[in-house]
Amino acid sequence: MEQNKLEKIVSLCKRRGFIFPGSEIYGGLRGTWDYGPLGTELKFNLKQAWWKYMVQDQENVFGMNASIMMNPKVWEASGHVASFTDPLIECKTCNERFRADKLDDIREHEEMHAKKKEKVEWTEPKQFNILVEAKLGVIEGEKLTVFLRGEITQGVHVNFKNVIDSMHPKIPFGIAQIGKAFRNEITPRNFIFRSREFEQMELQTYVKPDENSAMSVFEDMRQMRMQWYLNLGMNKDKLRFREHAADERAHYARAAWDIEYETPWGWDEAEGIHHRGDWDLSRHSQFSGEDLSYFDQETKEKFIPWVIETSAGVERPLLYFLLDAYHEEEERIVLKLHPKLAPFKAAVFPLLKNKPELVAKAQEIYKDLKKNFSVAWDDRGNIGKRYFSQDEIGTPYCITVDFDTLEDDAVTIRDRDTMKQERIKISELQAYIRKSLE
User: Fold this and answer.
1) How confident is the model at residue 98 (pLDDT cuts 50, 70, 90)?
2) Which value, to the nearest 10 degrees, does the dihedral of the CA atoms of residues 359, 361, 366, 368 take?
């Protein structure tokens, strides 16, 4: 099942309204994806879980939301214009292009041609900048070339001074952001794993330029980020740390580790934890002419802080949570998503939809629960089909209103994972669902 699990996830996401191919009715646009009703809820829940854990539950962490388009000099200072490149090669047989460092993709392509008894020859690698250009202005020929940001990191660093001046934080402190990024990927692949438009969730922690204190924060962040996945129910045996080799790290990185997940195509990155030194602030200080140093009121020291970064995509963890939650059992498919992530926290059913008194009572419960939770209404088909329909989209609880409800003000609640049912009072439903989210 592992070999074709990704295909099953793609099918489920299309069929049940999680994720659709971008611009599908026009033949699509490779590397872009649209999120349907359930996918939008799942993505929102994932970002909310990250924000609560990384910002609201922490001390001295501030949030921000930088512009997608920035002055082009930002990307010169960050090094993206000069070095944000991938090596590109082209198949001379079919003219398809690949990243030269993605050997698995190249091998698969060669095997495809080999089955057709075709010989493959490749062009020499060329460096290809993956920043996405845009044009601003009203007069053709005079428009300014800007870039859709290739990462959200720089939007935080260019606002370092603004946050210092407005919030007066004590070092160490963090600035967090969730936002869109764009890359002109040569070979988008594996569903939403690598796409051309995506979201990132990042925390930049500013520390004193001292290796011991910096590495202490680095290790705390490493463990903190791994715990986030475990808290949301991901299988610990599917997760691991991997340290970047010296020749793999960015030239400014003093340390770099990835959290990886064991996917159907092998171990692959979920997110990175990086010790960036003073690269970002020193470069932006140099290129902008602004003093981006920090003055420590307690020690009376002035210095350029070092940066410890945690950087996760939204789409990759989302895909991993789907893969991890997907189970095929006798007579049903079930997504065992953590209740915090599940698009709907509960579904409400009238036992029979042709009985007005049952429908009215079920509607009353449904509307009351919707005040605090995302809840589904389902009166299609028989109860068994409704259960399995909700199982497939990951709804943790199904609530059935029957004739006894009209007498005892209690409902039958069914657990998605165990399929066990119990009778509880309507007045206890809110607390019952809330407990599962806590």
Assistant:
1) confident
2) 150
